[in-house]
Amino acid sequence: MKKDSRDAPENVLRYKLDMCSKYGQVVKALELYDEARSDGVQLILHHYNVLLYLCSSPSLLETSGANNLLSVVLSRGLEIYQQMITDKVSPNEATFTSLARIAGAMDDPEMAFSLVKQMEDYHIAPRLRSYGPALFGFCRKLMPEGAYEVDSHMLASAVEPEEPELSALLKLSSDVKRADKVYELLHRLRRTVRQVSEPTAKVIEDWFNSESASEVGKKHWDVNKVREGIVRRGGGWHGEGWLGSGKWRLVRTGIDDNGVCHSCAQKLVCIDIDPKETEDFASSLTKLANQRVKDNFGKFRV
């Protein structure tokens, strides 16, 4: 009679590790790993990924009451990965993301970034979460060149940063007085996020209220070039960098139903979208109209 496959050692180990993951029992998981190694149980990718996930989650140590084991657990995570490679078990994106988080918990953004770069050796495409430990680590340690390199690597890998990443880069750039990067990141936020969260709004306010913000800016510029830039780029964005200098007047305000600002009483004169967005919007309207009113709609297109 064939023995139930669920009773096979590797399957029993998988179940127990999954339970450890569910309840955040990192210490118990490491005990199971050591026991499995002693018993000669063959570990597969899932086993290793669960173990690395647990080792990469310092918050789980708090729930298990084992804060003093943090450094030991992080080291065990790296050790387990080395064993995984020795066993010729090919890693995947989740593997490298957990390893990058281990490096981040060790306050080593360089290692975290190095691990992301290694993904290419295995033909693995990194995801946004893969970059977080390196990017936030560099930002936290005020290491701008490292952070900007991570950002460039993300874009080259077709990974688009979202508000948390852009906000961290913006704060870093403001803290190290990189006005050129602040300018760039503000426009990236404008294009990709638009309505920012309160923490990001505070980062933006801190920049404009800073002494650095009052000191940057061209004293002379070509007015015609600025006008041409606004027309070409749309949305009131000239793209010529900081113009003028001096202290900024910064207030929080709103727009009424008629497009009039509650603070300056001026009426909104344009919508902040670029030509590509305008074209996409027009195409969407055309498609919608064609679907609803098919009778010779094409002749009315501009």
Characterization of this structure:
By secondary structure, this protein is mostly helical. It has a domain at 276-301. It is built from 15 helices and no strands. The chain has helices at 9-23, 26-39, 45-55, 58-63, 70-86, 93-105, 109-118, 128-140, 144-156, 163-175, 179-192, 198-208, 211-215, 223-233, 275-292. Helix 1 packs antiparallel against helix 2 (26-39) and helix 10 runs antiparallel to helix 11. The longest helix is centred in the C-terminal third of the chain and has 18 residues, at 275-292. The protein is elongated, with a radius of gyration of 26 Å. The model has no long low-confidence stretch (mean pLDDT 89).
Weakly predicted, low-confidence segments: none
How many E-type strands? 0
Mean pLDDT: 89
Strand % is under 5%
Largest sheet: none
Morphology call: elongated
Radius of gyration: 26 Å
Helix run count: 15
Question: What separation lies between the terminal Cα atoms?
Answer: 77 Å
